[in-house]
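Re: beginner question about structure tokens

> Can someone show what the tokenized structure looks like for a real chain? I only ever see the sequence side.

Sure, here's an example I had lying around. Input first:
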Amino acid sequence: MAFFHSPARKSEAKVSWKERANQFDIYGTIVFLPAIISLLLALQWGGSTYAWGSGRIVALLVLFGVLIAVFIAIQFWKGDYATVPIRILSQRSIAGSAWYAFCLGATFFVMIYWIPVWFQAIKGTSATKSGIDSLPLIVSLVLCNIISGVGTTKLGYYTPFFYISTVLMALGAGLLTTWKTNTGHSMWIGYQIVFGFGVGFGMQQALICAQTVLPIVDVPVGTAMMIFFQTMGGSIFLSVAQNIFTNKLLQGVIATVPGIDPSIVMHSGATDLKTNIPPRFLAAVQVAYNHALTQTWYVSVAMACVSVFGVVWIEWKSVKGKKLDPVAA
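And the corresponding structure tokens:
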């Protein structure tokens, strides 16, 4: 704020404040926000707080469908001023990268949210210690993020890293679903590293792709779109994962620990299981908790696998001679 001074641009010098406001796609935003909120509420409440066939859930899903259809219509109407410009999204590599970014966001955010819960509930660690135990995933992700950026610059192509990321993400997420209550250090460290490699190799590639295939005037919008889809994937599928976990945990407790009130387990935080659950029930509850968590992680496995449908559409274009964003590269 203190040192950056935006250079004067003649194309913007004569733009009125009304025109600038029009560029924000206010109509699209007004429609999009309640659409996504309706979807998230339906995914979070369905099957747990309310039955899937209840009026509330049906109404939320219908509202989402109607509003998202209106949002898409607005995107066609607004053209280049849309939140998601159709002209840019229809470009082959951008469409593929957007789908890949959406899947990566879903895959990564589900795991990064629920893995610390596993450490707290199954291994009995504190919230702080669970974060430390998740470092293998984070460190490997950061390391491969750097390697992929340097590798893209040296090779001149970003596409190979998309494929590496898809394979390692799916493999790592699948391995994480094999965790048991007695899983040792070698497995929970090693499997996190494999998954972190997969996410790290691909996390910045969608941004690099947008900066490579689009003309310079469209690069800011294309980059913002990649971040938008990645964040949206995480937001939606965190709600999906929450719903699956709640239902699986409830079913597991009822089936394997009939002597305990399921509400005690459902309302106990992961770090409070040992405190709130009677010792004679704790081992069985942890088995149910572990099963619910690993079943939830299949969401990540599925999204990592379907990310390949975006990757196969991405063109092989060289970045040589194209100035990349230093953050992405």
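Each token stands for a local structural state, so reading them left to right follows the chain. Residues 219-256 form the longest helix (38 residues).
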